[in-house]
Amino acid sequence: MNGNQIEGLIGMLATLGILVLLVLPSALGVLRDRRIDRQLRQARQPEPHTGPAPEARHRGRRHGTARPA
């Protein structure tokens, strides 16, 4: 390779690098928007109801009652 070819290669690589730097933020923004849209679609879907929910059991002390002696 002679000097002119090397200069041309360096110029093409610099141009390609600048193009990548310009396109990368918009590509990342598109991917982020798609992820947010997918999360919103999942949030809108009703969760399947399998049956009655189990009753919660409190294991701690109840308010307003005395401690055992």
Q: Could you please describe the fold and organization of this structure?
A:
- It is elongated, with a radius of gyration of 31 Å.
- The protein has a domain at 1-44.
- Helix content is 61%, strand content 0%.
- The protein is built from one helix and no strands.
Write the layout of secondary structure elements.
Elements: H1 3-44
Low-confidence stretches: none
Main sheet: strands, sense, barrel: none
Q: Compute the average pLDDT.
A: 86
**Helix tally?**
1
Order of H and E elements: H
Strand content: under 5%
Number of beta-strand segments: 0
Structure classification: mainly alpha
Radius of gyration: 31 Å
Residues in helices, as a percent range: 55-70%
From the spread of the alpha carbons, the general shape counts as elongated
The first-to-last residue Cα distance is 95 Å
Structural descriptors:
single chain; 69 residues; mainly alpha; 1 helix; 61% helix
Quickly describe the structure.
The chain is an all-alpha fold. The chain is built from one helix and no strands. The longest helix is centred in the middle third of the chain and has 42 residues.
